[in-house]
Amino acid sequence: MQTINASDFKARCLAILDRVHATGEHVVILKRGHPVAELSPASRVETEYPQMELKGTVTVTGDIVGPAVPEEDWDSLRR
Questions:
Q1: pTM
Q2: Measured between alpha carbons, how far is 42 from 68 in angstroms, rounded to an integer?
Q3: Is 46 contained in some domain?
């Protein structure tokens, strides 16, 4: 991760944006030696819904429709 002073970033903004886009690296922008912002590449996933970025990251290991607790243990069914 590269760091750059805000004054240098201001002078070379377009070139830095092109480099971040091309390489995917992150750039931390400093003001008086302290980080104030982080520049990172935009998400390359172009979907209608942002949740689609999570597609394929979940593994179903059991019944996702049935109750988590067996019916025998439900207080509402006891009389």
A1: 0.54
A2: 39
A3: no
